[in-house]
């Protein structure tokens, strides 16, 4: 069935009650199994699983501070693989796999020439082996070969960040498509020795596809589907693991003050689909194409490909108030599969740049 915007879903569930929810989902099989399923946050009749965490979507403003040192350093970093059940959208649960319990995993930020001493831990109680492949690493598997660990194990690697750029990291076990689809990807930002231009705000999103055994919007517990993955036919596509997370129907729009210069990082975990990355009502004023932070940035690019396995960075200016919708311009993914994040530029109308009501008869926007 078609995905309903969350606001409609929530209103509908409130009005219609659980029977309505089951009918909405159209999932009689799951409804029949509901009695043996632990109550989920929403409708247990839908077959949704109980959640381990209320939220898996990383806060896009959670970006490490810029590099402010000018000599090589060593960074001791520990990451833990966490397998958690959470909601893709209300009433729809999924078994995520993550670095540190969030999608995307935390951004690692270093300076070119720095050394990273990284410990990866896979806690007791995990179901799967995991590892980590950094695209900022010279070495077998980008570190994956030496960090493949079973539940209860840990491994440490040390590497020098010899080349700059914004790069992805991801789990790279044999079923890597499943692990990445389930959330195991992030970004390592290796700043050039002279750093990056100062901006007012930085945001960090991760795009990926969720391949499940149910229809988009169908209530209940969605399991990974290798068939959907082989067809490259995702059930959901999301920023940070949850459908429409950064909209008024999710955790809210991301607030921006008018006039701020905002640098946005997009880590495309994939595992399969390129993003046609676009900011509706704006332009990538300076685009660090493919995460190349050394060449001069491209200017005033409307839409740019961000391939799976890439972290691209771009800067926007915000001269007028109102929403800026961050999308993949393959727009069915936006309208029907969950891939939308909204920045909310707060400020005064700036009619010299944009006047939504030049006749002045509607009171403006
Ligand atoms: Cu993994």
UniProtKB/TrEMBL annotation:
Domain Plastocyanin-like: 82-194
Cofactor(s) of this protein: Cu(2+); Cu(+)
Family annotation (InterPro entries): Cu-oxidase-like_N, Cu-oxidase_fam, Cupredoxin, NO2-reductase_Cu, TAT_signal, TAT_signal_bac_arc
Top class in the EC scheme: oxidoreductase
The keyword Transit peptide is annotated on this UniProt entry: no
UniProt superkingdom: Archaea
Chain sites annotated for binding Cu cation: 130, 135, 170-171, 179, 184, 329
Any one GO MF annotation of this record: copper ion binding
Catalytic activity: nitric oxide + Fe(III)-[cytochrome c] + H2O = Fe(II)-[cytochrome c] + nitrite + 2 H(+)
Signal sequence extent: none
EC number(s) stated in the UniProt entry for this protein: 1.7.2.1
UniProt keyword Hydrolase, yes or no: no
Keywords (A to Z) from UniProt: Copper, Metal-binding, Oxidoreductase, Repeat
PANTHER family from the UniProt entry: FI03373P-RELATED, MULTI-COPPER OXIDASE
The protein's assembly and partners: Homotrimer.
Name of protein: Copper-containing nitrite reductase
């Amino acid at each position: 069935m078609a995905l309903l915007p969350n606001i409609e879903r929530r209103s509908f569930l409130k009005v219609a009650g659980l029977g309505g929810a089951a009918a909405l989902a159209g999932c009689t099989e799951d409804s029949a199994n509901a009695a043996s399923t632990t109550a989920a946050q929403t409708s247990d009749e839908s077959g949704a699983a109980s959640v381990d965490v209320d939220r898996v979507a990383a806060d896009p403003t959670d970006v490490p501070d810029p590099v402010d040192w000018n000599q090589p350093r060593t960074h001791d970093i520990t990451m833990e693989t966490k397998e958690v059940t959470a909601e893709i959208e209300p009433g729809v649960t999924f078994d995520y796999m993550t670095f540190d319990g969030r999608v995307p995993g935390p951004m690692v930020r270093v300076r070119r020439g720095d050394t990273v001493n990284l410990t990866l831990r896979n806690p007791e109680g995990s179901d799967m082996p995991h590892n980590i492949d950094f695209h900022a690493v010279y070495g077998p598997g980008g570190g994956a070969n030496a960090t493949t660990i079973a539940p209860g194990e840990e491994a440490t690697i040390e590497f020098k960040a010899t080349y700059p750029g914004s790069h992805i990291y991801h789990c790279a076990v044999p079923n890597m498509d499943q692990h990445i689809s389930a959330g195991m990807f992030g970004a390592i930002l290796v700043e050039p020795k002279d750093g990056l231009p100062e901006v007012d705000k930085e945001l960090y999103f991760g795009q990926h596809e969720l391949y499940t055994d149910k229809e988009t919007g169908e209530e209940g517990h969605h399991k990974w589907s290798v068939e959907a993955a082989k067809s490259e036919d995702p059930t959901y596509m999301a920023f940070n693991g949850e459908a429409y997370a950064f909209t008024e129907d999710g955790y809210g729009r991301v607030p921006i003050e008018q006039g701020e210069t905002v640098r946005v990082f997009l880590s495309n975990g994939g595992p399969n689909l390129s993003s046609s990355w676009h900011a509706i009502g704006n332009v990538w004023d300076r685009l660090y194409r493919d995460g190349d932070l050394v060449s001069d940035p491209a200017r005033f690019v409307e839409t740019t490909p961000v391939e799976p396995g890439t972290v691209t960075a771009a800067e926007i200016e915000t001269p007028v108030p109102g929403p800026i919708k961050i999308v993949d311009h393959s727009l069915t993914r936006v309208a029907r599969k969950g891939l939308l994040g909204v920045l909310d530029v707060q400020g005064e109308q700036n009619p010299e740049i944009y006047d939504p009501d030049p006749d002045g008869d509607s009171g403006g926007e």
